Amino acid sequence: MTSEQRVVVIGGGLAGLRLAARLGPAAAVTVLGEESRAPYNRVLLAEVLAGRYAPDVAALPDPGPVLRRGVRAVRIDRAARRVHCDDGTAAEYDALVLATGSNPVLPPLRGLFPPGGGELPEGVHAFRTMDDCLALGAAVRPGVRAVVIGGGLLGVSAARALAARGAQVVLAQQAERLMERQLDADASALLHAHLASLGVEIHTECRVRGLATTGVPSRPSPAPPGAAHRRVVTGVELADGYRLGADLVVLACGVRPRTGLARAAGLEVRKGVVVDDRLRTGDPCVHAIGDCAEHAGRLYGLAGPALEQADALAATLGGSPTDYTGTRALTRLTLGGADRPLDLAAFGDPTPLPGDDVVRLADATRRTYRKVVLRGDRLVGGVLLGELSTVGALARTWEGDESLGAPHDMFHLLTDDGGH
Ligand SMILES: Cc1cc2nc3c(=O)[nH]c(=O)nc-3n(C[C@H](O)[C@H](O)[C@H](O)COP(=O)(O)OP(=O)(O)OC[C@H]3O[C@@H](n4cnc5c(N)ncnc54)[C@H](O)[C@@H]3O)c2cc1C
Prior knowledge:
The protein has 9 helices and 25 strands. By secondary structure, the chain is α/β, with parallel strands linked by helices.
């Protein structure tokens, strides 16, 4: 990149802002960010919702005028190398970077939208943005009935946070166990017990099929004659016909990469925007990083890979071509208040294939569980719950794809004292 080269980044989230920071103040960078509030790290939203952190603790360094807040990119004109925005302005680029993140998946629930489309009912929230988090925070009070739909990382975090605020929380998980993508059955069972001890009622193999809503007169109250009614959620309907009362519903059913702009611009999109090892799309002037990017068939949806991709692309655009070859990401989560916290770390595939070696250390009294799966002399997966003192060494071995040497070394990796 020469100093005259104009870089336009669409998306002022974790990946886009890291890229801008790495390119530095001398670069001609514009970040278009549709969110109008100051930049923040969404990884910390559950802690904000739980009341553990004030919103400003989640702030990301503000890049100043480089970030055009509250401006949404609406069309990419690749022939003219120009991005059109919703405020009528356009930004010309030499290099364009898509860092548009993902959208929450809205499940096909009866009653989610009124016939013909419209707004979500009052009381129903996604959990993706600071606005979602603050709206949920404003609605939660001790004793409020909250149903969280989805038992993955997001649903578990939201349920724990709402319980910490005194809500009566029911978590409805369609799969047979919690966080089934990251945890094996034993670790899931411990997590289940921990959440239950925090007062969360958990239903697994439980499909929600609809929402119950009621119409209440629009504000101001009393509403003028003929005023429209607001739809307010009153409960969720399960597939077996059972109905749970609810004042709040959180949709935590996964995320879908935001690829609309790329698709409309004729770029290749499979699950995400397809990029090569230089994080380039089929158009050499257009790149994609973070949650919206699909590299080597993989979507990550995690902060670590988003930051690594931003760093690799910054090096390339800065004149030091750098290949991105993938990230071996570790998922980490802390659940529970200061008195009863539960730490969790998971990586790779915790379910062994025939011929794999497994080392497992479980302590039912202390509610700790540690397990690693080894194929040949390499780690292929693992879970640590309740006891994370060895996570640093394990993470280094996993992330560096290092040889473990003798089986004893693997046991050593799981213990504080080398297994003595
Ligand atoms: C509640 C929650 C908890 C999480 N916890 C963890 C965790 O513990 N560990 C972990 O690794 N990951 C976690 N994640 C995931 C992590 O936050 C994401 O992987 C990461 O933020 C991805 O960064 P990104 O920049 O690709 O996307 P984002 O951070 O989503 O940023 C994308 C930005 O682009 C903007 N944008 C999109 N389209 C346009 C447009 N057309 N014009 C202008 N702006 C646009 C969006 O508004 C958004 O601000 C969590 C996510 C959530 C929601």
